[in-house]
Write a structure and sequence with these properties.
2 domains; 5 helices; mainly alpha
């Protein structure tokens, strides 16, 4: 069964190393060697992460002589942003309700606090 693109993207983004690689690519195209530099892992391990990102459509690689350069591809990230946007409204409503509740609690808390001061 073929996984849907959103599932493949989320799966690729689930790993912190792959997210760090994408973060590095935000500043522009980078060689695989440069991408691997900050990670305490072998080049084959980095290459596996890059393959996952490439299969998810999150990066593109191009050869240049003996080097391979990677760049970020924004399409799948746009799909994630669109999907999460549907849920933003839900969270905004919940946070607004929480804010209203906390605003209602402030006067009650102040009254309780003031009563405690008078007893002393």
């Amino acid at each position: 069964m073929q996984a849907d693109q959103l599932s493949v993207t989320f799966s690729a983004l689930a790993d912190p190393t792959r997210r760090a690689i994408l973060s590095r690519l935000l500043s522009g195209e980078c060689s695989v060697t440069d991408l691997a530099e900050p990670f305490d892992m072998t080049m084959p391990a980095v290459s596996k992460h890059l393959r996952v990102l490439e299969r998810a459509g999150l990066i593109a690689r191009r050869p240049e002589a003996q080097w391979r350069h990677c760049r970020i591809e924004a399409g799948p990230l746009k799909e994630v942003a669109n999907w999460t946007e549907h849920y933003r409204h839900l969270w905004e409503e919940r946070l607004d309700r929480l804010d209203r509740y906390l605003q209602q609690m402030k006067p009650r808390e102040k009254k309780r606090h003031d009563r405690g001061k008078r007893k002393k």
